[in-house]
Amino acid sequence: MTARIPKSGQAGAPRRISVLGATGSIGSSTLDLLKRDRSSFAVEALTAHESVEALAAAARDLRPAVAVIGKPELYGALREALSGSGVEAAAGKDALLEAAARPVDVAVGGIVGAAGLEPTLAAARHARVLALANKECLVCAGEVFKAEMAKSGTSLVPVDSEHSAIFQALAGERAERVERLILTASGGPFSMLTRAEMADVSPKQAVSHPKWRMGAKISVDSATMMNKGLEVIEAFHLFATAEDRIDVVIHPQSVIHSMVAFCDGAVLAQMGAPDMRTPIAVALAWPDRMATPVKRLDFARLAALTFSPPDEDRFPCLGLARQALRSGGGFPTLLNAANEIAVRAFLRREIGFLDIAEVVERVLASETPVAPHDVADVLELDAQGRRAARAAIGGLGRTIAASSDGGRIRKV
Ligand code: NDP
Ligand code: MG
To answer: Quick check: is 19 in a domain?
Structure first.
């Protein structure tokens, strides 16, 4: 599937927007833009998993038709928090899917992880434009997701900054004239550390990204560089480009968000401050543009833009993701599931930072996945990957020495 340029909405009418994952980092940046331009947008649905207070506060402010909390046991709390507001409160998986399926101009897919697959697919079937941040959907269900998108005719505009950059650089270009896609990577917080130094890093250090403020899971993915591996898979699906034509380059300043190299030697780069409100705005307003308060680049003060190749020995997750993509079939689903479990275990201090790659590698080596043909197959394979990852974590035999945040991981 090549991300398509959407049909335009009704001229003059406010765009109807749903935000799935409204309380997260992508969700908050989206709500910030909606609040700054209230006459251009009308909010249909806001969803969250368990952050009742944040969801209720956003709903009281933006007045969607419905606010949905994923955990059913939080229904009472949400209903109470919204009483008198005129906003319908709902809870649980069915309510989430129903809200996601409401017809809107733009549905923002900002849920984290494979948990977002079903709601995002529901949105993909009914929205005019899917503004997709939830890259795990494409990683775990690429072919299935693409088939659903093709059936619905919904346009996909990527929100991930690299893919938004490529989407913008490709506008008006012919796909067969593209030679390479070049994804930039900041290198994350540990770009200067040795493997020995990485062994002892804490979750707090891992989520302190030098350039971007993001949710915990993607921050850890950035630190391991699994995020860039997931993005290679995402680009493969979005832009129908073979794995060996998708490059990754370390660019610590995060000014160039990605590039497209064409057959005539031209390279188009999209630049801007590292602020997700730009790629979100691109998706909300496409094919038009909208104003944002994002800090403008001052080229006179940009001392240098530097580039270097990624180090796959220090950051093996990037190679593991490429390997899963080349192996095809169900391997990317397994990779994603194993990574989600390993990252959660790291955040809970059950394993060390370097163990994340180790767990993913063990799962890819031990399982023989069947290629998924539909959503049920993907969910089954996802569960298989999670079980295998839990077993791999058990096999590592780690325990965390009781200490403060900098505590060491040791083998017992
Ligand atoms: P966050 O963790 O900040 O937010 C996740 C959102 O999803 C929250 O609203 C959360 O609700 C909700 N959520 C979590 N679990 C579930 C679930 N099981 N069912 C339904 N909703 C759930 O994540 P980010 O905003 O950082 O990332 C969202 C997605 O966007 C990820 O796929 C990420 O890779 C991608 N992305 C993010 C970028 C960023 O800058 N943050 C950049 C590029 C891509 P609650 O608050 O109640 O838990
Ligand atoms: Mg990205």
So the answer is: yes
